[in-house]
Design goal:
Helix content is 67%, strand content 2%. It is an all-alpha fold. The mean pLDDT is 77.
Length: 256
């Protein structure tokens, strides 16, 4: 292989590794967002299910490893270190296999995950008091912003302990439909209605929440597919460059 061709491969591999490093940072950032976010629907699931927490740790680990591999790939490409290029190829192959396995597992488990999500939310609605700032206030935010009430329908709230055991006509304040007459609008907790009709939204949040999750999953899927394509290109280029390097030259390794 000509010297000019090797140079082109080397700098293309450097570019791909730089992109790989950036996409790894994005995946790690998303994992951190899932782990620490308390202003979206994810916080409701995270408080009640270990599955979301485990998924966030996996994303952080994969993102961190991808960043490390991108860094070592850049060093191996620039200085033509065969051992780093071989290690880079092996790690990329393992990451790609892990990503495909995880994607297939999530796809096969989508119905159980959907059932688990519905169970978590219905249990939270039953025990809602308006005092849990993490999950309950986040669910209030979801209902008010998505203009919905309950999971499948507002009837889910009829099982709430406070509503069942109280003689007053209570309803969750976050379900309040502002276009209907009623008491003062509040963001969280329970409100009392004096009229015969409860001034709340009449549609459940299941469809809106599922759409929100699908929209966000589409973004993550796009990032993961982009990373997979870069991984394949990186593996091909690393093997081409590795084969073109006839002999190790450790004098090319930078000294610090």
């Amino acid at each position: 292989m000509g010297k000019g061709c090797i140079t082109v491969i080397k700098y293309f591999l450097f570019l791909f590794n730089l992109l790989f490093f950036i996409f790894g940072a994005l995946i790690m950032g998303f994992g951190l967002w899932v782990l620490f976010d308390n202003q979206s629907f994810i916080a409701v699931l995270q408080e009640s299910s270990d599955t979301v927490k485990v998924a966030s740790y996996i994303l952080i680990a994969v993102g961190s490893l991808s960043m490390a591999m991108g860094f070592f790939g850049c060093i191996g490409a620039i200085y033509e270190i065969r051992c780093l290029l071989g290690l880079y190829f092996t790690c990329l192959l393992l990451i790609l296999i892990a990503q495909v396995t995880a994607g297939v597992s999530i796809y096969l488990q989508r119905e159980p995950l959907k059932y688990e999500m519905a169970k978590i939310l219905k249990d939270m609605i039953i025990n809602y008091t308006g005092e849990n700032r993490t999950t309950e206030h986040t669910w209030d935010y979801v209902q008010s912003t998505m203009k919905c009430c309950g999971w499948t329908s507002p009837g889910n709230w009829s099982e709430n302990v406070l509503i069942k055991d109280n003689s007053e006509n209570l309803y969750p304040c976050s379900c309040r439909n502002e276009s209907l007459p009623g008491t003062d609008i509040r963001d969280v907790g329970m409100c009392e209605h004096l009229s015969s009709e409860t001034p709340i939204y009449q549609t459940g949040c299941a469809a809106s929440v599922e759409k929100w999750l699908l929209d966000n999953c589409g973004v993550i899927l796009g990032i993961c597919v982009s990373v997979a394509v870069i991984q394949l290109l990186g593996m091909i280029l690393s093997m081409c460059l590795c084969q073109s390097v006839v002999q190790e030259d450790y004098t090319k390794v930078p000294k610090y």
